[in-house]
Task: structure prediction
Amino acid sequence: MWIENIHARISSSEQYLNVLENLSAFRGSGYASGAQWFACYQNLDVANEISIQLAWKEGEQPRKKTNCGLLISRYLAQHGLVRHTLWEPC
Result:
């Protein structure tokens, strides 16, 4: 398994709730259907910062930024700063 992590700091707290609502709709849209799991976390210290993680099964998806992850990153980049990275177990 490997993980695609998308970390975003939304530029304003007014946009933050709207962004979360849109991500919830995205989650149910089927775009992430190949992922083992899809999780969204909020930073407890910085209220307008989120981390989205997509876990992919080894061998079913090449280890590169997926179309699903790129779609999420592009959406979030419209609302703030984004860092999109890939992770593997140690």
